[in-house]
Design a protein that fits this description.
Blueprint lengths: L7 H4 L2 E5 L5 H6 L1 H8 L1 H7 L7 E4 L14 H11 L3 E5 L10 H13 L3 E3 L4 E2 L4 H35 L10 E2 L9 E2 L2 H22 L8
Parallel strand pairs: 1-2, 1-3, 3-4
Antiparallel strand pairs: 4-5, 6-7
Helix pairs in contact: 6-7
């Protein structure tokens, strides 16, 4: 699939494919999404780029798109666009680039200034044109709203479980949970606690003995 927006000015620069999954668990289990994202290399070739001019940034796998602070790949992409090295940014969907309008709109401004196109599975857009910016702006806004909607659903689910007494969270040391989630917490027996303390003391004494001649033994 070609696009009339792609010109020799864009083709003389790199096409960069940005790949991201929101969590490490998704990166491991949602392999079909990864396959579709990596398949964008063929999309770049169809748009006119040589294979040698197509690069992939995938070091943000497992990173949320809610903020850009911890995403090294996204920062690298911004730097390369600023230097005028990128003619096209490809992402399977714009939510891979940013889930926050405070990160999304500066990217649009930068791409528009540097004449860098943005593409996803639906098409190719020119951020420097009114129509392109309108469509990309809507996509970014919807992406941010989706993030807040997902958070709201998760929070509502947690609150509902808590009201029923079914919410299971990590317990402090010294407490154990009953057979069912809603049961009251119970303390460990005194004998079990004493055994654990004795094992810990013996292990610590052994570590101190191996650590050096000035070790102090615990009574």
């Amino acid at each position: 699939m070609t696009s009339d927006l792609v010109t020799p000015r864009h083709l003389c620069r790199k096409a960069v494919i940005y790949i991201r999954q929101s969590t490490p668990h998704q990166a491991l289990t949602n392999q079909e999404s990864l396959r579709l994202q990596y398949a964008l290399r063929q999309r770049a070739r169809d748009l006119g780029w040589n294979d040698a001019d197509v690069e992939v940034i995938d070091i943000d796998l497992g990173q949320s798109g809610a903020v850009a602070e911890h995403r090294r790949g996204f920062k690298d992409l911004i730097a390369r666009v600023t230097l005028g090295e990128v003619g096209l940014i490809l992402s399977y969907e714009v939510t891979r680039l940013a889930r926050n309008c405070s990160d999304w709109y500066p990217l649009l401004d930068l791409c528009g200034y540097r004449q860098c196109l943005i593409g996803d599975r639906d098409g190719v857009y020119d951020p420097s044109s009114a129509n392109g910016r309108l469509l990309l702006g809507l996509k970014g806004t919807i992406s941010e709203v989706e993030l807040h909607t997902l958070r709201g659903r998760l929070t509502a689910g947690l609150l509902s479980k808590a009201e029923r007494g079914d919410l299971a969270l990590a317990l402090p040391a010294g407490l154990a949970r009953g057979a069912q989630i809603g049961e009251a917490l119970r303390s460990r027996t005194a004998g079990r606690q004493a055994t654990e303390v004795a094992i810990a003391v013996r292990a610590l004494n052994r570590m101190l003995e191996l650590g050096g001649p000035k070790s102090v033994r615990i009574a």
